[in-house]
Design brief:
The complex is a heterodimer. Chain A has helices spanning 3-33, 42-49, 64-73, 81-93, 101-108, 113-116, 119-124, 126-147, 152-180, 183-187, 190-202, 206-213, 219-227, 236-254, 259-272, 276-282, 284-305. By secondary structure, chain A is an all-alpha fold. Chain A has two domains: 1-148, no CATH class; 150-308, no CATH class. Chain B contains 14 helices and 21 strands. In chain B, helix 3 (73-97) crosses helix 12 (321-329). Classes of the chains: A mainly alpha, B alpha+beta. The interface between A and B is medium-sized, with 21 and 25 residues.
Chain lengths: 308, 468
Amino acid sequence: MLSRNAENLFWAARYLERAEGAARLIEMGQRMTLIPGAGRDEWRSVAAVAGAAHLFDGEERITDASIVEKLVLSPDEPSSIRHCLNRARDNARAVRTGITSEMWEALNDGWRRLEMADPTAALRDLPAILEWVKARASVFRGAADSSMLRTDGYYFLRLGGLIERADLTLRLLDVKYFVLLPETEIVGGGRDHHQWTSVLHATSAARAYHHVYRGDFSPWKITDFLILNPRFPRSVAYCYNELSRYLELLAIAYGERKQCNMLAAQMVSRLADTEMGEIFATGLHEFTTEAIRHNARLSGAIHRAYHF
Amino acid sequence: MFNEMSGEDGVIRPAYEGVARWIERTGSETLLLKTEEAEAIFRRIGITFAVYGEGGDPERLIPFDLIPRVFDAAEWRRLDRGIKQRARALNAFLWDVYHRGEILRAGIVPERLVYRNDAFLPEMVGFDPPGRVYSHIVGIDIVRTGEGAFQVLEDNCRTPSGVSYKLETRTVMMRMFPELFRQLSIEPVDDYPDMLRKTLEEVAPPACKGSPVVVVLTPGPLNSAYYEHSFLADRMGLELVQPQDLFVDEGRVWMRTTRGPVRVDVIYRRIDDDFLDPIAFRPDSMLGIAGLMQVYRSGGVTICSAPGAGVADDKAVYCYVPQMIRFYLGQEPILENVQTWRCSEPDELAYVLSHLDELVVKEVHGSGGYGMLIGPKSTKAEIAAYAERIKADPEDFIAQPTLELSAAPSVAGGGIAPRHVDLRPYCLVGADMRLAPGGLTRVALREGSLVVNSSQGGGVKDTWVLSE
């Protein structure tokens, strides 16, 4: 396929995943601000995870309205949902022959909603808007799953989405790591419990987590779940197993393994060999920082391997 | 005004009997509701059309009118012959003007119309494109003024657009009104992409051995017809490439793919001559594929339509197409031209200037309905201003009578009313001539309006050809 089209597919999926990630983060922030006495800094950590902390430097107290303006409706801010959705659509539009009409319709349906939205109304309807954003991403993934030929284009699409998803989980842990440090267990109390569960909520993991750990909310179990559990579809391990699988399928189709295959395999075996205790021993923060770098290297290696 | 449904005497014409019964049965209220439904379908699929030089929605919808426009088998047989005849003559003319110029030597077409035409490319002189085909997709705009009266308004030899609307309107109609297609025998149109692909494969260059690699070349997603480019590439199963995806090396053209370079044999380009090759045409331009023309001229790739094909379709050359048909084919034209006054001729200029209030005046090189004067619909001041433009550069203008275009029933003005229509069929020219039944019917949805261009608020209708 055309290299440009492979790149378009990769980034269409990646931007859509990013838009969905931003929606999840904002939901988490909203949930946090509902707790009395808490949540004053919650928007700041949401902005930090979204890579947009600098936008709020001048604001002593970040308001919901400011979040809506900068992280939802702004057409230019790279982290805003509207920007990400537009970029996803632009990339998909440039590769219209490479996606199915169901996938295109998923992206095109209501694509001007955020452009038309008035800030006051958007603030009022924020939960509905965030639900809608997540639904766009789900419908798109579902359409790809059920309508797209399993050829290289599909693999590039999946790679873009998975890289971004691993990145979001890692950035969330990177910003919230202090909440999960073992010491905080000593502090205890309702607020910490709420902090931890909000991290799970941001990754749609609350119920899945219950299922696995039955309400035992300890920081290392939460961390274990988000990093090492290969059955949870937003965990780093799951994303890397899948990344590695699709890169392998590409290597078979193209008859050649490349540097990106090695990079993905390295991370897969590293995660498989790691016990949760080890990550805390060497430092959660150090681990996430290094993994985020590794993720970026992998993305670059995919670009090079397939002439993007 | 000729009403295609009710004819000159108010009696429903046979071709429209099925449609008339359907309108009667459905009622205008339901049709209005269905129109909204159709619009939602178009919006979701993303069938849009950007209008040059206007603000607003960059991806606006092209208005769709639900009531089909119908030809019976006999009407279409004649149109089919007339269209193919014209497409053949236009290609013969192009081969001639880029070789010995017999028609110019014979004094039938004035030399300056060809050699001083901006669309004439000296680079093409003496070159033989595969099959001697220059215009592989000829769009011929046809209007009707009476029962048997069809006239050609304009030829499009470069890259006529709109065929995707023709195919999509049919898809939407079949999705919304399947019972209509069961009851009436309507010729299918969905094999057009296959015919186009065959046509393009037939003109593979001499250097191509084996099965040719064909691509569709688009300027990119910002182009107004991008939807159509991607639609056609998709339906033909071909790569949709942009100029930056192609490059020239070792005398051939290649596209950049995830597996490395892949050779390209035939390019169905939807970009203008000027932006094909910066080396040949626009040294100042960053756009295009450097070296493409040299590969083309040495038989390493085929460009469709051929660069320079536009010299056959401007509005001054148009006047001579009937003579071309006689000269090259030795036949009488099956389809007439619309009477045309060339402002380059002093007598005709004088006539035009004194009858501006009843004529339509067009720029010779214009297209898309821009920059024209419709005398009967213009104010005195507009006419006076336009007259000054004509006098400043008479060669740039032609004039035609304001035609009483035929009208077909349309959902408009809150009910069902006749609206003016034209027809653009797409004739394919490769080793064979191919013509899908019907074409794109454009409709001027504003009451009384004669301008059907989509850039001027025109809409589209499904076009039916009834089978025998």
